[in-house]
Specification:
The structure holds 2 protein chains of 2 kinds.
Chain A: H1 2-9, H2 13-32, H3 37-57, E1 65-66, E2 71-72, H4 75-101, H5 108-125, H6 129-147, H7 154-185, H8 190-199, H9 204-220, H10 229-236, H11 239-247, H12 249-262, H13 269-291, H14 297-314, H15 321-347, E3 349-350, E4 353-354, H16 364-367, H17 369-382, H18 389-403, H19 407-432, H20 446-461, H21 467-478
Antiparallel strand pairs in A: 1-2, 3-4
Helix pairs in contact in A: 2-3, 2-5, 3-4, 3-5, 4-5, 4-11, 4-12, 4-15, 4-20, 4-21, 5-6, 5-12, 6-7, 7-9, 7-10, 9-12, 9-13, 10-11, 10-14, 11-15, 12-15, 13-14, 13-19, 14-15, 14-18, 14-19, 15-17, 15-18, 15-20, 15-21, 17-19, 17-20
Chain B: H1 6-23, H2 29-56, E1 65-73, E2 78-84, H3 86-105, H4 114-133, H5 137-146, H6 148-158, H7 163-192, H8 197-201, H9 207-224, H10 233-240, H11 243-268, H12 270-296, H13 301-320, H14 325-356, H15 367-370, H16 372-386, H17 392-407, H18 409-435, H19 441-444, H20 451-469, H21 472-486, H22 490-495, H23 502-513, H24 515-525
Antiparallel strand pairs in B: 1-2
Helix pairs in contact in B: 1-2, 1-4, 2-3, 2-4, 3-4, 3-11, 3-14, 4-5, 4-6, 4-11, 5-7, 6-7, 7-9, 7-10, 9-11, 9-12, 10-13, 11-13, 11-14, 12-13, 12-18, 13-14, 13-17, 13-18, 14-16, 14-17, 14-20, 14-21, 16-18, 16-20, 17-18, 17-20
Chain lengths: 482, 526
């Protein structure tokens, strides 16, 4: 009997492990106080590695429904969970130096990372609207707290509150959508919804339900028209937390969207495409134009992420495994590039304070050439210039959009990317062409440097050996299309 | 030739050199010297390799030579496919030839972050050679666009006072055109199931689709050429770029547009090409006359040469869209010749700029007195730019005009007036700079060419004269490649013989068989 249960739970080994570790560390932190931050940080980092190890050792490829069909541990979920764990690991690495330098000894921060991570891991495996909602809320609640963790800072609390209120609104939309879908199909399971919707003529209520569900999820990936929170939250939250926001939750929310559109709403592809076209184009165009006037680096990254989510959504238009694979690849590359950007951003300081205004980066190349050139490479990659990895990310999503016959959409998308390239270039211009305004501090945080060098090495080397990631993305996408 | 990957070696050798230089620590005198030596050595070695390639090139073969092919992205049919034919061959050599000259030209004139500067040039060389060698559409795009990164930095960091504006204008203009080409490439790849250029050349695209694809390619190549009215980035970029940057810009980057037309638009989209040829003719004629007139009133030497480049590129686009052998041969030759002549002219301007730090024509005069060797070099280059028989400029313009004459006499007549205008502004420049009255003391005290300067002007001048006297070496090698480009047009050409006057056709055939003597004859007549 107990053997049976273990078999049933084996696909969620990483999540269970992380939950147990999280609870133990929480106890430890509560008992030992703030002096345990260092240990907890390393334990959290280690647990991400172990979690990834569980995933790598598990039998991928066999779609396995578990917990009563609440989640599926198929190839897609394995790869997305690996991405999420990787993103969590990187963002925790970025946290290490920041905690030390700012003398913040709050053991809750790494633990909140871990618990929101558990939520995200469940998100990409959810195959039931109930598990979808619960996992989404688990991760979101942790993120609301993280945004406001710097509670003596006005901007931080403001960003936490904004994130929470708008997040609650989007949860409301999501729940309303779920209840509509439930009302018309009488089930919450993805598989059953899919079967029912493909058989009968489409009830308008289920259609409206899908729109509401998508709206709730579009909020999570910060795409237009539910993007308003992004710049404020990015700017207000402490920088490592912003890095977390920019890197991980989007991957998880995208996983949800992909699973919904290829599973229960697969038969509504035509209707969903209209929404995606609007959201994708609006995001990429707004992200491109609104970013032009930003002078705060974190706000710039916020608009850049809005635009990037727009491009990534283009990959979903064709509704083919190749399209989904292109999105997965896009997210992978985007995640690594963004992590690299944050590593540089957090490493550039003047008189002990982090610099956030773009104009303060003037002349960085004279004082810290390595950082300036790394940032240059990352920004060129972000703007989609070959032969860097960012180009291939865009290449594949646009290819799948073109293959789906969305020529005009692709043209508008690439034109938006040209506009967006202007603000990346502006940062490069400030760093490389302008005269320095003052001295920069020496950065001696090894973990941050490792993230930076790793990200730059990745964008440079991807051209040479692209096939591993590409194959993984294709395998992952393939399991969604039986 | 399949066993030795000479093209990959040429492409990536500079990249390795650049990486090597960036790894060198420090900014001391010895590091600077070592980085200069590395740059010279690497680019020199690449040039030697390109000569080896040139000598081993089989002029009679119609196939791509020195081919290399490896699977790269299997899922959407992208491969690493390199190879050269008679059209790309000389552009590869030109790129490899100009880079060491750029290194030499920057030997003493650049003092700010020399290591990065030279590394940027080596990186640029990788992308340039790669562009001309690529036989896969995405690989081509990769190199074609990659050029923007080092060029943006070169203009922005080492440029003149308005460098930031120029760098942005250059970058955004070019990128805007190129992304449209990317969508077109993706469309073609989706239709054909492969990104292999030779396969794409054999694919028939629906005529209506061809129109859109052609326009998308045109957006990219017309900006790169640059054609009127999207040429405005060029004068800015030229004026602000450092000398060596202008040399590469004029010498090689402008050729990518024409090469792109010959590699993509013409062979892959024949119907659309014929449909749009009159439009290109119109734009080219406007470019030739309009920009020549603008060049006439310039007081900035670099700007003058920049506008003259636009005019010269007008002849190239005219020649390409004649869709006959002489026209295209002329276009290719004109590109090579312009690559040498305009590069050399920018170097010549760089020489006096280094001494007086101004590009204002009015500040110079009577340089033949104190700089006799410089004056000689300048006059030879000027004659090459004007297109005097016996210099390289003549062959290209003559053949291109001949090709145009067969298609449309009005256009040919209008374009020929550009030759006269060209002579007017170049002679004006020469009169002021080299011969005019002494205008200022500093100019009269400038010293003549140094040894390094002589070292890089010598091969350029020799090349200008050699290409003018014996153009057969180049022309003969381009014939098979151009024939295969035109092979898709012959069917249509034969069905509408009335459009071409009989005499013109007969005259043309003589040129096809042996172009070189023809140009000699005309030289005699002059």
């Amino acid at each position: 009997m107990s053997g049976m249960n273990w078999l049933m739970l084996s696909p969620v080994k990483p999540e269970l492990f992380l939950v147990v570790v999280g609870l133990v560390l929480l106890m430890l932190g509560a008992l030992r106080g703030q002096s345990s931050v260092g240990f907890i940080l390393s334990a959290v980092l280690a647990s991400f590695v172990v979690g990834a190890g569980f995933l790598l050792l598990s039998d991928a490829g066999i779609p396995l429904d578990t917990l009563g069909g609440m989640i599926a541990a198929d190839g897609f979920s394995v790869w997305m969970r690996l991405l999420i764990l990787g993103g969590l690991f990187i963002s925790t690495l970025l946290l290490v130096g920041w905690l030390k330098e700012n003398q913040v000894f709050k053991f809750e921060i790494p633990l909140l990372y871990l618990l929101s991570g558990v939520g995200m891991l469940f998100m990409v495996s959810a195959t039931n609207l109930l598990s979808l909602y619960v996992s989404l809320e688990l991760s979101s609640l942790c993120l609301y707290v993280l945004a406001a963790i710097n509670r003596d800072n006005l901007k931080s609390t403001e960003s936490g509150l904004k994130y929470f209120i708008l997040g609650a609104l989007s949860s409301g939309l999501l729940l309303f959508g779920i209840s509509l879908v439930y009302g018309f199909t009488a089930t919450l399971s993805y598989a059953e919804i899919g079967a029912i919707l493909s058989q009968m003529t489409l009830p308008a209520g289920a259609m409206v339900g899908m729109v509401f569900i998508l709206a709730g999820l579009v909020f999570k990936i910060s795409a237009v028209p539910f993007h308003m929170w992004t710049p404020d939250v990015y700017e207000g939250a402490p920088t490592p937390v912003t890095a977390l926001f920019a890197i991980v939750p989007k991957v998880a929310a995208f996983g949800l969207i992909i699973r919904l559109l290829t599973g229960p709403f697969a038969s509504l592809h035509e209707q969903a495409s209209q929404i995606i076209v609007f959201v994708a184009l609006a995001s990429s165009v707004l992200g491109a134009f609104a970013g032009l006037v930003q002078n705060n680096f974190k706000r710039l990254i916020a608009y850049s992420s809005i635009a990037n989510m727009g491009y990534a959504l283009l990959g979903l238009l064709s509704g083919t495994p190749e399209g989904v694979a292109s999105v997965v690849l896009y997210l992978t590359i985007y995640m690594i590039m963004t992590a690299g950007l944050f590593a540089v951003l957090m490493g550039v300081k003047r008189e002990g304070h982090n610099i956030e205004s773009i104009s303060d980066f003037a002349g960085l190349v004279k004082k810290c050439p390595v950082k300036a050139y790394c940032m240059t490479g990352l920004l060129f990659s972000m703007s989609g210039l070959p032969p860097l990895a960012g180009f291939f990310a865009k290449l594949f999503v646009f290819q799948s959009a073109v293959a789906g016959g969305y020529f005009v959409v692709a043209v508008i998308g690439v034109l938006a990317s040209v506009v967006a390239s202007y603000y990346y270039l502006r940062v490069i211009k400030v760093m490389l062409f302008d005269a320095p305004l003052g001295d920069f501090d020496k950065d001696c945080c090894a973990s941050r440097k490792a993230v930076m060098i790793g990200a730059v090495a990745f964008i440079l080397i991807f051209t040479l050996v692209p096939n591993y990631l590409l194959d993984q993305a294709q395998v992952a996408a393939g399991t969604l299309f039986p | 030739m399949t066993e030795f990957p000479i093209l990959s070696l040429m492409t990536f050798l500079p990249l390795i050199g650049a990486a090597l230089m960036l790894l060198m620590k420090g900014q001391g005198e010895s590091v600077l010297f070592r980085s200069k030596m590395v740059a010279l050595l690497v680019s020199g070695l690449t040039f030697i390799l390109s000569l080896v390639m040139l000598l081993n090139f089989d002029p009679a073969s119609t196939d791509y030579q020195f081919e290399e092919k490896k699977i790269w992205f299997e899922s959407i049919g992208i491969s690493y496919h390199m190879g050269v034919d008679g059209i790309s061959l000389f552009f590869v050599v030109l790129s490899a030839f100009l880079t060491p000259i750029c290194v030499l030209a920057s030997w003493n004139s650049v003092s700010l972050r020399v290591k990065e500067y030279l590394a940027a040039f080596l990186l640029l060389e990788t992308f340039m050679i790669g562009t001309f060698c690529a036989l896969d559409a995405i690989l081509f795009y990769l190199f074609f666009e990659g050029v923007l990164i080092p060029m943006f930095i070169i203009i922005g960091v080492w440029g003149g006072p308005r460098r930031v504006y120029s760098a942005f204008k250059f970058f955004l203009y070019t990128l805007l055109g190129s992304v449209l080409m990317l969508v077109a490439l993706l469309t073609m790849i989706v239709q054909a199931g492969t990104a292999d250029i030779p396969t794409l050349m054999g694919t028939d695209f629906a005529p209506e689709l061809q129109t859109w694809l052609w326009l998308a390619f045109f957006a990219s190549f017309a900006v790169k050429m640059p054609m009127w009215p999207v040429h405005t980035w060029l004068p800015d970029a030229h004026v602000e770029a450092p000398t060596a940057g202008s040399v590469i810009l004029a010498g090689v980057l402008l050729k990518m547009g024409g090469y792109g037309f010959l590699r993509f638009s013409l062979p892959m989209l024949p119907d659309a090409t014929e449909f749009f040829a009159p439009m290109v003719f119109g734009l080219s004629v406007i470019a030739i006359i309009y920009t020549s007139l603008i060049a006439l009133i310039q007081t900035d030497m670099k700007k003058m040469i920049a506008y003259s480049s636009v005019a010269h590129m007008g002849f190239v686009t005219l020649g390409i869209f004649t869709l006959n052998m002489q026209g295209i041969q002329g276009a290719v030759f004109q590109m090579i010749s312009h690559g040498v002549v305009s590069a050399a002219l920018f170097l010549a301007i760089g020489v006096v700029y280094d001494r007086l730090h101004t590009r204002d024509i009015g500040r110079y005069g009577n340089l033949s007195k104190n700089m006799p060797i410089y004056a000689t070099v300048f006059v030879i280059l000027m004659l090459g730019a004007v297109g005097l028989p016996g210099t390289s400029g003549f062959v290209g313009e003559f053949l291109a005009l001949l090709g145009v004459f067969k298609v449309d006499t009005t256009v040919a007549t209008l374009a020929a007036s550009g030759v006269v205008l060209g002579a007017a502004y170049m002679l004006h420049l020469t009169r002021k700079l080299v011969f005019g009255p002494k205008v200022n003391e500093d100019a009269a005290e400038m010293s003549d060419l140094t040894t390094v300067e002589k070292a890089y002007f010598l091969p350029l001048v020799v090349l200008v004269l050699w290409l003018g006297i014996a153009p057969g070496y180049v022309l003969e090698r381009t014939v098979p490649a151009i024939e295969s480009v035109l092979s898709r047009y012959e069917v249509q050409v034969e069905t509408i013989p009335a459009a071409v006057p009989d005499e013109g056709q007969a005259e043309g055939q003589i040129i096809v068989e042996d172009p070189a003597p023809q140009s000699h004859d005309s030289e005699g007549e002059e």
